[in-house]
Specification:
single chain, about 280 residues, alpha+beta, Alpha-Beta Plaits, five-stranded mixed beta sheet, two-stranded antiparallel sheet, 11 strands, elongated
Length: about 280
């Protein structure tokens, strides 16, 4: 799994939370949010309508060297689901309605909800005022393909409807290990935005003036620390280029990227001058 895939997926999750009819119930790679049972029935354990975001298949083609930083065409999946269990009784109308939506819990309403949520996903990820969505867009160079699918089932006697959007994008390459991130790079922007995310403090004491109601998200902080560790370190310019493209040291020497023996390794090569050999007559 590349770091760019991780960061782009998380950016999409945080961009969508609170921006659609499912509210904050946007899940990060929630395995089993939609599941197929042994007898082929569709099921979910979620207690209310949801979106689950995954980074799926990817393919890097025409990589003539040996680069492991190239991500190529990458699929992001947005799975949406709603079941007959996601309902509540409306005392005012005497009707059973979908949780948090207020429309009758009919099959047609299920499909309506999912169609609207699918539209909201596109609107949210295109929103120039949504900072997380802006970061998500910076991680890719354009939409290659958008596919939509739907399914339904009656697993365990509970009606369930689901839709999936598969967004294929040309994902930006991963940062190279040992190369300092530029402040305007997508990964640097992701790290900076992640540092601002907070969650409720489970140990908050309202009667203690020194107790804070929110704290930095410990899970996201741990994820970011691991991601930073993968690109930390120091390297010279020539080492970075060998890592970026998967060039062997011998190839680097032949291309005059690797300094000759006796030259200190921490001296950056700023220019290479070469001229054709004059034939001897």
């Amino acid at each position: 799994m590349s770091l760019t895939r991780i960061a782009a997926r998380l950016a999409a999750v945080y961009a969508l939370r609170g921006k659609t009819l499912v509210g904050d119930n946007v899940l990060d790679s929630q395995i089993g949010a939609l599941d197929i049972t042994a007898d082929g029935e569709l099921r979910t354990d979620e207690e209310k309508p949801f979106i689950s975001v995954y980074a799926d298949a990817a393919k890097s083609e025409e990589n003539m060297l040996r680069s492991w930083t190239d991500n190529g065409a990458t699929d992001f999946l947005f799975e949406m689901g709603v079941t007959a269990a996601h309902t509540e009784f409306n005392d005012e109308t005497g009707e059973t309605t979908l949780v948090g939506v207020g429309i009758p819990a009919t099959d047609a309403a299920f499909e309506f909800l999912l169609d609207v949520v699918a539209r909201q996903i596109g609107d949210t990820l295109s929103d120039p005022e949504n900072e997380w969505a802006e970061i998500f867009r910076k991680f890719h160079m354009g939409n290659v393909l958008i596919e939509r699918a739907r399914t339904s089932g009656d697993g365990s006697g509970v009606r369930l409807a689901a839709q999936q959007i598969k967004l294929t994008v040309m994902l930006m390459p991963d940062p190279v290990r040992g190369r300092e991130l530029k402040p305007e790079s997508p990964m640097a922007l992701f790290f900076a935005k992640a540092a601002t995310l907070t969650v409720p403090n489970p140990d908050h004491d309202p009667d203690d003036p020194d107790s804070t109601a929110v704290i930095p998200d410990p899970v996201l902080n741990a994820q970011v620390a691991l991601m930073r560790a993968q690109i930390a370190g120091s390297s010279t310019d020539w080492q970075t280029e060998l890592r970026r493209y998967g060039i062997t040291r011998t190839e680097g020497e032949n291309m005059l990227i690797v300094p000759p023996d006796g030259v200190e390794g921490d001296i950056a090569i700023v220019e290479v001058g070469a001229a054709p050999v004059v034939p001897v007559t």
